Amino acid sequence: MFNIIKDMFTIHDFQHNTLSFGNEVLKSSQTQGFNRFNATLIPGVKPYENGKLYFFQTNSTVKSPDYAVIFLHDKVNLNKPSIHIFFHPLPPPEKTKSYPAGPYWEGLVNNYLVNNDKKLLNQHAALGKKCVFVFPFVPSSTYFSRINTAKKLRDYLKHIIHTLCSVKGKPQKLEDIQLGRCAVSGFSYAGNVLKTIMESSMPTKNPFPELLELYALDCVLEAPENTLDDIIKRFYESVNQWWDGGGNRRVRIYTSYHKMYYNFIGSSSAKNKQKVCNAEAIEYYSMNNFTFLYTPDKFWKTVCAEFWAKHKGSVPNPNICNVNNRNGPLSTHQTMPSVFLQHALKNSGF
Q1: Which CATH number fits domain 2-346: 1.10.520, 3.40.50, 1.10.150, 1.25.40?
Q2: Which of 27, 47, 183, 229 could link 213 by a cystine bridge, Cβ 3.0 to 4.6 Å?
Q3: Residue 244: pLDDT above 60?
């Protein structure tokens, strides 16, 4: 199904400081800067020294995302591997013609995997999680329509593992491939992809039983303004039904959008959850399986102001409150994946 492409373009080996969360509850009782999180700072994390990166190109006869970057940890057992797949937001339509080469696409991959804006690989490396990380990148013309249901996604991941087994010299028949614990995550507009996957993963007709974790990183949903509230509510209801399906399922939702927060507190997902507040951030949680965190702009402004009041000069920090944005991140929305994927992974089942 896949061809391996060597040196499609450079993925840099950037090191970054990364927040490491101590446990499932994000917020602490502390009231100064990053101490408001139950987290410590890990400096200078390298992105992929404990594994190997592959560029996958889909054979033209198969309907799936045309290109993907795959990170295979050295100690992953491909007999039944844990897998984490991430969905990026919708690219600009005008970039479709240059796909998959050129500065835009190389920049997109580096931005999400190793640049400080997102540093997804660095966050994996900080924890040493032994999983296969899948990063498909697609143009807006097809976006993720080829893998946006539970069945299509499961088939896609089985083909990826099938190819990796052959690459590692241990080929298996496709029908013999087994998947371990799987997680899906998405950022921004990719919330629409997570929504369709959840809706097609109901326990009574679940075509993807290995899918047990959901990480929604400041996701937004597309709908006309007069129906948006209903769409968001239906998303939360789908998530709640899926979460109730058993199997130690885990849900992590992090948002800076008031509308996403407002509709959450009125949904069944908010029932029977403990609540923590800190500097206008609000967290709902249920130990070992559920987190919902709302961090508006005011929260980040408070954190950054406190951080710089305490640390005057050049000091290690998570690169969120740097010298150019002491009053808060330049974009709270863009900051969310660079901080909270690590929390989801820390408390994952793999």
Answers
A1: 3.40.50
A2: 183
A3: yes
